[in-house]
Every structure is written in C-alpha cells, then in structure tokens.
Specification:
The structure holds 2 protein chains of 2 kinds. Chain A has 6 helices and 6 strands, in the order ααβαβαβαβββα. Chain A is an alpha/beta fold. Chain A has a 5-stranded mixed sheet with strand order 3-2-1-4-5, with helices on both faces. By secondary structure, chain B is an alpha+beta fold. The chains are: A alpha/beta, B alpha+beta.
Chain lengths: 287, 132
C-alpha cells in the first residue's frame, strides 16, 4: 500500500524536524539565560551613570562643552539597526526591518545611512536604495568586548568628524521572555540634560574639575549605552528564538498525532479489505 | 550611616548601609562619612575601604571610575570591582605578568594607553589583595 508507506515517511520526517526544533529550543534557552543575566545586570550601571550625568550637568553652572553634546544642522542621519545573524527566530528580524524601513522611507535617502549590526538586516537592505556605511555581522548574539569597542569607536568618530549629525539606535528591548519591544533611541548627539527646576542639587564639589569628569564620563557613557542596547537585543533574539522553536516543536507534535491517526485508520482499512478478500475467496471456493 | 552602592557594568557588587568609606579619588584618597557635602569625582585604580554597620572593614579593589555622593547616598561606578578576599593571589600575579608583557609588546603602537591601563589595574589588584 503506497499511501501507508507515504504516511509513515511523513511521520518520520516530521519527527526528525521536531527533534531539531527541540534541540534549537534547548540551545536558545541556555543562551537566553546567559544573555538575560547580562542584560538585566548591566542595567543599574547604565541607569546610575545617566543619573550622574544629569546631576553633573545640572550642578555645574558654567557652559560645558564636549563634542558629544554638539547639536548641528541635520544634514545626515545614521541608523544603527540591530538584527540577528541567524534566522529561525520568529518575527524578531522582520519587526526590526519593518521599523527601519518605515524610518528610512520618511527621510531622504541621500541624507541617511545605515549601520547594520547583524547579518539579517544587512541581507535585506544591501539590495535597496539606502546607503550602508558599515556592517558588523560577527557578533553571533554574544557580547564580544573588542567588537563593541570597535563599533563605539566607529560611531563616535563618525559623529565627531562630522560625517553624520545624528545617530539613532534601533533595537529590541528585552522586558521578559514573553515580551520584547522594538525601541528607537537617539544615541548621539547627547542632549544635555537640563537642570531640573525645584530639585535643589546643591553645590557639588568636583574633583578634579567638571570638564575633566565630563571628558572622562562621556566616552564611557557612550560605551555603556551601546553595550546595554546590544545586550537587550541579544537577549531578545534568544527569547524570540526560544518561543518560535517551542511553537514549532508543539506544532510538530500535533502533526505527528494527526498523522498517526491517519496512519492507523489506513492500516485498519487495509486489514479490513484483506479480510474481505480472504473471506470472499473462501466463499467463492465453497460455491 | 549612609547608603553605598558599588556598581560595575557587569553587576551590583555591593549595596549596604555603611559608616564610612575611603575611596581612591583622582586627586588622592578621600574619606566619606554621613552628611558629606555633595561631591562628584573620578577615581583612579586603588583600594576602596569600607567600614560597615557592624564595624567590619571591607576592602575592595576598584579600577577607576566615578563616585558621586549626595544626600547620604554614595554611588561608585567602577570599571571593575573585586573584594580583596576574593582575589586569587596566584592568578593576580599571572595577569600582572601578562599585562607587563603586553605593555612591552605594544610599545609605540596605538594600543599602548590601553595596555598601560590594564597593567595599572593588574598591579592594583595585587596590591590590594596582598594587604588583606
């Protein structure tokens, strides 16, 4: 019976697919745990640093200047798009790409450029009309410090040299395994936090000088912000992949159940026909 | 008593109410007790000594960063921070050797400042660990 064998073959193929998705789910879960810890534990540092920047800026009355604060007429904008290097992670990349495309289509292609972190975004945008100024696709969803450093240096140099006037980050913020949010944030220039009125910060003592602290603090702030965006993006990627793979595994299971039912029915039908044939044959002999 | 939190990019290292601290400021070590005037300072690699509520002295090796103190909350943002008790002397010595090597190899190259920083950090860790 051809159909019987066909069904069996289907069942076996779905079973091996389920094994693969299950393995991928396990891998994603293990990586998620690591990435989640990294994303969540790096957050307090970034928050405290941004608080400190605010206090510093509010308390020092004299005009502080730093290249990162510089607000220019916007002639060129850069979008840093964080996608994953590998696929099979549900709507993670398509969400990012859709948001990026929307952002880009609202602007003049001549006045924008893209920095792609992750292979998926690059693969999508390289055949389209927008300029890609740099690609980083070897992160593989892991925090590699030298690479982060390289990316920060690239972005800050580009900004300071005046090759771009504003830099935005588009990444997926990690809230929980079930919740990730696409987020667009301005990276450079840094808007100097205005002194909050009513909040008496008092006279701070600065050691050595506010300028010296600023020029020390800002590069670190730039690094930390990018790092925490990356950490969020990586954790989100693993989370969406884990969810996608869980779904795929469940679907495969359902499919196997349905196919097994179909197989059993076909088997029973075959047996019935065979009995009928035997009985029919015997009756024919009797006659 | 005031609140002290020591935070690194990796994690929160220490968060307790403490009596006093002595921190390695950029222009020299400085002591902070309750009701200290608001201050923001950058820090260099050195030893952070903390006197906690029960009178114990805790030593932490920090490798540069920033400190802010205002209204009895003191925040230390350190590039890295390790309790002196947790530092393995043997390994600290080894990493110092490696850092020395790097400084030598990187002489004249763009990486020199970074190699020197790494060397300072390694030296500081060892120093703090030895004094425990």
């Amino acid at each position: 019976m051809a159909t019987l064998r066909d069904i069996l073959r289907r069942i076996n193929s779905v079973k091996s697919t389920r094994q693969i998705t299950k393995a991928m789910k396990m891998v994603a879960a293990a990586q998620l745990r690591k990435a989640q810890i990294q994303a969540e534990q790096s957050r307090p540092y970034a928050e405290k640093m941004s608080d400190m920047l605010g206090h510093l800026s509010a308390a020092s009355t004299d005009k502080l200047s730093h290249p990162y604060f510089e607000k220019r007429d916007v002639k060129k904008q850069t979008l840093v798009l964080m996608t994953s290097d590998r696929g099979l992670c549900g709507a993670f990349n398509s969400n990012m790409i859709r948001r990026a495309e929307k952002w880009l289509s609202e602007r003049d292609p001549e006045k924008t450029e893209l920095v792609c972190v992750g292979r998926r975004g690059h693969l999508y945008f390289r055949k389209r009309q927008w300029t890609i100024s740099e690609v980083y696709n070897d992160f593989n969803a892991e925090m590699k410090f030298t690479m982060v450093r390289g990316l920060v240096d690239y972005l800050t140099n580009r900004f300071v040299d005046g090759q771009t006037d504003e830099i935005y980050l588009l990444y997926t913020k990690f809230i929980s395994t079930a919740k990730t949010i696409p987020t667009l944030e301005k990276y450079l220039n840094i808007d100097r936090p205005e002194s909050e009125e009513g909040k008496a910060v008092g006279a701070y003592i600065f050691e050595p000088t506010p300028d010296a602290i600023f020029s020390n603090l800002l590069p670190r702030y730039a690094l930390v912000r990018l790092q925490s965006a990356l950490a969020d993006s990586f954790a989100s990627e693993h989370a969406t992949r884990m969810m996608a793979m869980t779904l795929a595994t469940n679907n495969a299971g359902e499919m196997i159940d349905a196919l097994t039912l179909k197989y059993n029915k076909a088997r029973q039908a075959a047996i019935t026909t065979e009995i009928l044939e035997v009985v029919g044959g015997a009756e024919a002999l009797k006659a | 008593m005031f609140r002290l939190s020591v935070v690194t990019p990796e994690r929160i290292v220490y968060e307790e109410d403490v009596v006093s601290i002595i921190a390695p400021g950029d222009v020299g070590y400085l002591g902070i007790m309750s009701n200290h005037a608001p201050i923001i300072t950058s820090m260099k690699p050195g030893k952070l000594s903390v006197k906690d509520g029960s009178g114990n002295e805790i030593k932490i090796a920090v490798s540069g960063g920033f400190m802010e103190n205002s209204s009895n909350t003191c925040t230390i943002l350190a590039d890295s921070a390790e309790f002196a008790d947790d530092i393995d002397l043997e390994r600290a010595r080894e990493s110092l050797e490696r850092a020395k090597q790097r400084v030598r190899n990187a002489a004249g190259e763009i990486d020199t400042p970074r190699a020197k920083e790494a060397y300072e950090r390694a030296k500081n860790r060892l120093k703090v660990a030895k004094k425990k």
